[in-house]
Design goal:
By secondary structure, this protein is an alpha+beta fold. A 7-stranded antiparallel β-sheet has the order 4-3-2-1-9-8-7. Strands 5-6 form a two-stranded antiparallel ribbon. A hairpin with a 3-residue loop joins strand 7 and strand 8. It is globular.
Length: 161
C-alpha cells in the first residue's frame, strides 16, 4: 500500500437519483501517473447495474480553501452548487444541481485533492476537527501561521462547543 496522495492528484465522486427509482454514480479520478479513471454506473429499482457513458465533467465553483470540483452534467446544462456541507483544505462535500439524460438531478458530490492532502500544513491539521461551516475554515490560517487573532480564537471556542 502507499499513501493516498501518492496515488491520486484529484477525484470527484457523485450519486444522484433519477426518475423511475433509478440512480447514477460517477467516480472520476486523476492519478499521479497522469492517467484518468472513470466509472459511471446506473442502478435500476431492482439493483441491476449498467455501465453508462457519462456526460463530460464541468467545473463547479471551488471551495473556500481553493479545492477544485467538477461535476458531470449534460452539455447544455451547467452544474450548479446548491448547498455546501463540508469545505476543508483537501475535501469538499456538497449538493450539486445537474442534468443527466435531459432530467434534472441533485447530486451528492465529493471532491478530494491529493495535491493538497500531501501538504505538510494540511497534515498538521488532521488531528483537529474541521468545523462544518465552510467560512470558518479560513480562521485556521492565522492560527497555523503563528499569529492567532483574538477573533479567530473566540470564534473557534464558540463554534466548537
Amino acid at each position: 500500500t502507499c499513501p493516498l496522495e501518492d496515488t491520486f492528484t484529484h477525484w470527484d465522486w457523485a450519486r444522484g437519483s433519477l426518475p423511475d427509482d433509478q440512480s447514477v454514480i460517477f467516480y472520476d479520478t486523476q492519478r499521479r501517473d497522469g492517467s484518468r479513471g472513470m466509472l459511471a454506473l446506473q442502478f435500476d429499482e431492482d439493483g441491476a447495474v449498467t455501465h453508462v457513458d457519462p456526460p463530460a465533467p464541468q467545473a463547479v465553483k471551488s471551495g473556500v480553501w481553493g479545492v477544485a470540483r467538477n461535476a458531470h452534467s449534460d452539455a447544455e446544462s451547467a452544474p450548479a452548487l446548491k448547498a455546501s456541507y463540508e469545505d476543508g483544505p483537501f475535501y469538499l462535500r456538497a449538493k450539486i444541481g445537474s442534468q443527466i439524460g435531459g432530467e434534472p438531478v441533485d447530486l451528492m458530490h465529493e471532491s478530494f485533492s491529493g495535491e493538497r492532502f500531501g501538504q505538510w500544513w494540511v497534515k498538521a491539521m488532521l488531528p483537529f476537527r474541521m468545523p462544518r461551516r465552510s467560512w470558518f475554515g479560513l480562521l485556521y490560517i492565522p492560527i497555523l501561521m503563528g499569529t492567532p487573532s483574538l477573533i479567530a480564537i473566540l470564534a473557534y471556542v464558540w463554534l466548537s462547543s
